[in-house]
């Protein structure tokens, strides 16, 4: 009887020891962080803090962009960024845009990127509104625009005058006569 109890105790202690070692071995792997942060201060050329600066961090691999604004003290912080390489851009009206390429973000670390903005010229922004006509047909000559999808420049198609309107509708993309 006592030998059976000793064997059971030894097996229980062995099982407990293996469990403790397994937990001690796995715990550091579970504690690893996959998110990091970027923070810093934005100043002008005189060293004064610049507030409400738009700070954009763009992940180079995924093209995902995170945007924040600097506080009144010029401090900003972008947290919960996945590890990788980022491009950090600082913009504010009246200042030249400053960009920092290849900023490395590591897991469970904060990368510091400070900016010193210079006074810049007012930029001109041109907004183009509208879309080009992609399927223009000259009804006098039967010429089909080279901008039709999938057709090379210089491609021409003569429309047969004997076609019905249903047959002509078939030439237009996304139009069905049925």
Low-confidence regions: 124-138, 145-149
Portion of residues in helices? 10-25%
Number of domains: 3
Q: Based on Cα principal axes, name the global outline.
A: flat
Topology diagram in text:
Layout: H1 2-30, E1 35-44, E2 54-59, E3 65-69, E4 75-82, E5 84-91, E6 98-105, E7 110-112, E8 115-117, E9 137-138, E10 143-144, H2 165-169
Parallel strand pairs: 1-7, 1-8
Antiparallel strand pairs: 1-4, 2-3, 2-5, 5-6, 9-10
Q: Can you tag this structure with a few keywords?
A:
178 residues; alpha+beta; Immunoglobulin-like; 3 domains; 4-stranded mixed beta sheet; 4-stranded antiparallel beta sheet; 2 helices; flat
Describe this structure in words.
With 178 residues, the chain is of the alpha+beta class. It has 3 domains: 31 residues; 83 residues, Carboxypeptidase-like, regulatory domain (Immunoglobulin-like); 48 residues, no CATH class. It has 2 helices and 10 strands. The strands form 3 sheets. Strands 1, 4, 7 and 8 form a 4-stranded mixed sheet that branches. The longest helix is centred in the first third of the chain and has 29 residues. The protein is flat, with a radius of gyration of 33 Å. It starts with a helix and ends in a 9-residue tail after the last helix.
